Amino acid sequence: AYQVKLTVGMPDVANRHDWQVFGAYKRIEADAVMDAFTDSDFNLGGTNAKGTILGGSYGLDKNTWFTARWYSTREVSGLPLSIDVFLFDLTARF
Predict the structure, then answer these.
(1) Which residues contact 69 (CB under 8 A, 6 or more apart)?
(2) Are 69 and 37 in contact (CB under 8 A)?
(3) Which residues pair with 56 in a beta bridge?
(4) What pTM was estimated for this model as a whole?
(5) CA distances in angstroms from 86 to 1, 2, 79, 81, listed in the order given
(6) Residues of the chain whose pLDDT is less than 50?
(7) What number of H helices and E strands is found in the chain?
(8) Beta carbons of 16 and 61 less than 8 angstroms apart
């Protein structure tokens, strides 16, 4: 299993108008990781998948930001299966 990720923008989105965009490619072979330790959003938590993660964050106010992520996965081997997940998060830190 491996993941390659590129992030551009502020290192930490904590203030108004801070931004960050990211893209990643992840590949998890069958049984490469125990299912209990996989990312539950990528391929709905399973293994035997490869795909991309695209997203970004934007600061709405001090310690408040909005994040959107898109996960697109396909099976590495076996019967074809494709899963796409789109997530929105609104986070406030206090």
Answers:
(1) 41, 53, 54, 55, 86, 87, 89
(2) no
(3) 21, 68
(4) 0.88
(5) 23, 22, 23, 17
(6) none
(7) 0, 5
(8) yes
